[in-house]
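Section 5: illustrative case.
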């Protein structure tokens, strides 16, 4: 039986390992610059920016979901944004991802969130089909935009 629990500071090394494994799967292993120290501060510091839940069976970590709250001016309520969902290769197809999504949906409802959102790479057809089977709708007409690194510094006038 898969159990889902909120992450504790002791889980940071496991979360970091899962982040690296996810980056490898997403073909961007060199993009990970986070460290255990940064994750610990972001998740368990004075003003946490993110949370995570861990899926495990018999004490063995099988996956995680890292999330945070966002806000909708249209609804006037906060939402829950799933940043990363990761299931170890050996646990895929065993309902772990579904258990993580269902758990976060309950968290969202319990916290009064009106939305539960995430992004998926357009080439990840298995994930897209899985999310669709869970009731997710692709947000056609929307494009994610990002400014980072030197471009962010320039935009901030700090080049």
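Designed sequence:
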């Amino acid at each position: 039986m898969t159990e889902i629990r909120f992450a504790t500071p002791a889980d940071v090394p496991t979360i970091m390992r899962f982040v690296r494994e996810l980056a490898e799967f997403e073909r961007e292993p060199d993009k990970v610059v986070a460290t255990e120290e940064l994750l610990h501060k972001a998740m368990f510091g004075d003003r946490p920016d993110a949370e995570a839940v861990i899926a495990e069976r018999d004490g063995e970590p099988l996956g995680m979901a890292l999330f945070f709250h966002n806000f909708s001016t249209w609804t006037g309520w906060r939402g829950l944004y799933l940043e990363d969902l990761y299931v170890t290769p050996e646990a895929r197809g065993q309902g772990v991802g579904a258990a993580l999504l269902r758990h976060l949906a309950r968290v969202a409802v319990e916290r009064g969130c009106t939305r539960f959102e995430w992004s998926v790479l357009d080439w990840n057809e298995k994930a897209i089909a899985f999310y669709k089977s869970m009731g997710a709708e692709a947000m056609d007409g929307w494009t994610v935009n990002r400014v980072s690194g030197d471009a962010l510094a320039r935009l901030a006038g700090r080049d």
